[in-house]
């Protein structure tokens, strides 16, 4: 857990939750973006299948605790993001974690195919999805925070410069 996350467990703006500690390799990329933008966040394992009562408890209190977004990652039968969306009005951003046998296509379909009325904003499988979920949270928070929006614009400008400086290796 990052310093930001440890210091802010009781005043977090964003919850980063995952079904297993094995998801951290992917979910750390969401936390890294939140760290970069100084968004206070907590990081927890909340398994839908192995600790369902804890999941219900987390969802039941998320809004009153002040969370404004929940980034939820899970793999395989990835029910955590959808169940969290069912438990709280706080918007849920789902990250499909690559699975061992189906490489995350199972995770993606489990998260994205929500029934009408209970949305989960679903991102790409793996690292890009985790980072983009966090960037989308930043963009949402930035709609009411001009300073944060300027930082997001600067982040994108740096990204543009990196892309412009890319050189393709010589080829025949
Ligand atoms: C899911 O099962 C987790 O989100 C994880 O992606 C997957 C495997 O969990 P472990 O067996 O590695 O703990 O609930």
Automatic annotation (TrEMBL):
<dbReference type="InterPro" id="IPR000031">
    <property type="entry name" value="PurE_dom"/>
</dbReference>
<feature type="domain" description="PurE">
    <location>
        <begin position="12"/>
        <end position="163"/>
    </location>
</feature>
<dbReference type="GO" id="GO:0006189">
    <property type="term" value="P:'de novo' IMP biosynthetic process"/>
</dbReference>
<dbReference type="InterPro" id="IPR024694">
    <property type="entry name" value="PurE_prokaryotes"/>
</dbReference>
<comment type="pathway">
    <text>Purine metabolism; IMP biosynthesis via de novo pathway; 5-amino-1-(5-phospho-D-ribosyl)imidazole-4-carboxylate from 5-amino-1-(5-phospho-D-ribosyl)imidazole (N5-CAIR route): step 2/2.</text>
</comment>
<protein>
    <recommendedName>
        <fullName>N5-carboxyaminoimidazole ribonucleotide mutase</fullName>
        <ecNumber>5.4.99.18</ecNumber>
    </recommendedName>
</protein>
<dbReference type="Pfam" id="PF00731">
    <property type="entry name" value="AIRC"/>
</dbReference>
<feature type="binding site">
    <location>
        <position position="20"/>
    </location>
    <ligand>
        <name>substrate</name>
    </ligand>
</feature>
<comment type="function">
    <text>Catalyzes the conversion of N5-carboxyaminoimidazole ribonucleotide (N5-CAIR) to 4-carboxy-5-aminoimidazole ribonucleotide (CAIR).</text>
</comment>
<keyword id="KW-0413">Isomerase</keyword>
<dbReference type="GO" id="GO:0034023">
    <property type="term" value="F:5-(carboxyamino)imidazole ribonucleotide mutase activity"/>
</dbReference>
<feature type="binding site">
    <location>
        <position position="23"/>
    </location>
    <ligand>
        <name>substrate</name>
    </ligand>
</feature>
<dbReference type="InterPro" id="IPR033747">
    <property type="entry name" value="PurE_ClassI"/>
</dbReference>
<keyword id="KW-0456">Lyase</keyword>
<dbReference type="GO" id="GO:0016829">
    <property type="term" value="F:lyase activity"/>
</dbReference>
<comment type="similarity">
    <text>Belongs to the AIR carboxylase family. Class I subfamily.</text>
</comment>
<feature type="binding site">
    <location>
        <position position="50"/>
    </location>
    <ligand>
        <name>substrate</name>
    </ligand>
</feature>
<keyword id="KW-0658">Purine biosynthesis</keyword>
